[in-house]
Write a structure and sequence with these properties.
The protein is mostly helical. The protein is built from 13 helices and no strands.
């Protein structure tokens, strides 16, 4: 792969504070992903959840294969394929399918309640996988942010209340995405951001193509133009282009801290649900959203200890993030 050569050795000290470009790119990715739940809700009104979850990956996989071929990227090597399989299982297969099935019978706002746990889950996965060690203050602020966003989102939906099977699907999607984000953020330092999601999509393409074909045979797709437009967004942006910015931001890192930008995703999601789906939007939404954004801002400003250098996630010499 061309961009493999950009992961060069450096004798300097690792960066201990988040780079502005990493936070900005993370914010762009979160903004793109914030439409995923509302547009999935729109799409499932006319298309089967299996077709949405698999079909969007097929479209994105074709785009990814074309981009890789046109730019003549070299094949990943060795264990990189195993790590790409982890990314594919989390963000290409797990999250899209689980959320699509869950949103057939739960409001978009309620989906945002459960998915609000994703920043904390991603930070935990980054600590386990990447050996990032945020201080106690980071976990306190992150926990406060998770509590704030769940409390805020609960006011706009049916709330968590009794745990339903849809909540279990959404919780499963959170775990899948968190693992895929953490592993993808590390792998993007070696392969590049768009290359990482592209290879993951290509790796999952045969399976997702088979699932889409089975779904189309069982229930031939039939949807309105608006529902097809929502599906197109899920395939092109949520499944492909959004990861260009998101994985690049995580690669610059630190992953645990950049992931906290996701705290504002449920706020945006519920605002889009109100505008696009007519779900309730009140002054509590505005005030709660401001509180969540303040928590996210505090989380990304907490300094890491020297032991938490985010480029020590890979064994051996310190690596610079790959350039796209």
């Amino acid at each position: 792969m061309k961009d493999n050569s950009s992961a060069t050795h450096s004798s300097g000290t690792a960066i201990l504070s988040p780079q502005p470009s990493g936070l900005l790119l993370g914010l762009v990715g979160v903004a793109a992903f914030s439409f995923t739940v509302p547009f999935t809700k729109v799409a499932v009104a006319g298309l089967s959840p299996l077709f949405i979850g698999s079909g969007r990956a097929v479209v994105a996989g074709v785009l990814a294969a074309s981009a890789l071929a046109l730019s003549r990227q070299l094949l990943p090597r060795g264990t990189q394929w195993v790590r790409l399989a982890v990314v594919a299982a989390g963000v290409v297969i797990g999250f899209p399918l689980l959320t699509s099935f869950a949103l057939t019978s739960t409001p978009a706002g309620h989906g945002a309640v459960v998915i609000a746990l994703l920043p904390a889950a991603t930070a935990t996965a980054a600590v386990i996988r990447g050996r990032e060690r945020p201080p106690l203050a980071f976990w306190l602020v992150s926990g406060l942010g998770a509590f704030a966003v769940i409390a805020f989102a609960s006011l706009q939906s049916a709330g968590l209340g009794v745990l339903h099977w849809t909540d279990l699907l959404l919780l499963g999607s959170v775990v899948a995405a968190a693992v895929g984000y953490a592993e993808g953020g590390l792998l993007a330092r070696e392969l590049g951001s768009w290359q990482t999601i592209s290879w993951a999509l290509v790796l999952a393409l045969p399976l997702m193509l088979a699932l889409a074909a089975v779904s189309a045979i069982q229930q031939p797709p039939s949807a309105t133009p608006a529902q097809w437009a929502a599906f197109a967004y899920l395939a092109v942006v949520s499944m492909f282009l959004g990861f260009f910015a998101w994985y690049r931001g995580l690669a610059i890192g630190p992953i645990a801290r950049v992931s906290q930008i996701q705290l504002i995703q449920p706020v945006l999601t519920i605002c889009w649900a109100a505008l696009l789906l007519g779900e309730a939007l009140t002054w509590s939404t505005v005030l709660g959203g401001l509180a969540v954004i303040l928590c996210a801002g505090a989380a990304v400003r907490v300094r890491l200890r020297p032991a938490a250098a985010h480029f020590d996630a890979l064994p051996g010499p310190v690596l610079q993030p790959a350039k796209d």
